[in-house]
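Hi R.,

Here's the chain you asked about this morning:
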Amino acid sequence: KRQKIREEIMKKLDMLENDFLPQVMVDTTEIIFGTFKFLESCSRTLAIANTGQVPVQFEFIHKPGEEAYCKPWLQAEPSSGFIMPGEKCEVCLRAMVDKLTAHQLNAGKDKLYDILVLHLLGGKDLFITVSGNYEKSSFGCSINSLVRLKVPISELTPGEVLSLENGELNKIPENYLVDGSPSYNIPKEVWFLCDMMQSLDLGQENLFLQPGDRQEILLIRDWLDTGLPKQRPEVSIHSVAEALLTFLESLREPVIPYSMLSRCLECSGNYLQCKQIVSQLPQNHKHLFDYLIAFLREVFSRSYSNGIDPKILATLFCSLFLRDSPGSTDRKSTRLNSSHARYL
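And the predicted structure, written out as tokens:
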């Protein structure tokens, strides 16, 4: 009889313990963003309801071997919180492909798919899958790919964009590629942006320093990606300037390749050695470097009206010409500002 009573008491204690474990319900375990473009933000809401009898503390936690709870193109707000019994919390999941993540998607090194681990303190974990489709853009492509392509990137399938980025030109229709050898001297997108700026007057004040309008920048993106129609978008020169900066910063590999970064740092104090490094740049990278330097000299020639300080602009473009390789923790590129100022 004593054993039976003991078993009944243990059952009641187990039931009480289970009742006081954190318990939640989510309205969905699958978030689908649909299709979106470069620099477009897309958001969905995840509702977390506390269905238990005790307060719940939740947090999105890292998966094994990963440094963050989600991929760089995804963000959860809030990523942690506290929910009282009977209440709920709405988490906004926002996806956006920007200059730091576009090249990974264009090159097929990443895809719009992730699994979020929703951890309950003292309770179990829930798994939320997130997916979407990215409409690939010329923003985030490599220089070598862009100089070979004569049609807008929107005419290529995702698989063809991947082949282009991987240098598998035999998988691209011949009429999509530039005839002859080697290719365009520079990406046509850069030429069109610089040409548009010249037509809008390089003498305007605060050029490259005043931010552009976001909607106008998206119009420029579509103009570059969908065929460069004769009818240019009606935008300000500041929006075009910001689009040019974003385009250069989003390149899969910067104007000066990652492999030459350490050598540039070593030679940054010697003008002749810097000139020698420039002469040894890969052909397509050197063409783009020379073109941009010539364009910036033209911008400086209008300094009497635009008021541009060469040192400020050299510092700005230095971070575009030279970037630390992805995942690097060494942030010494700014030491090259003075050497770039000499070129400009």
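Strands lie at 24-26, 30-36, 41-50, 56-61, 74-77, 80-83, 88-96, 113-120, 125-134.

Let me know if you need anything else.
M.
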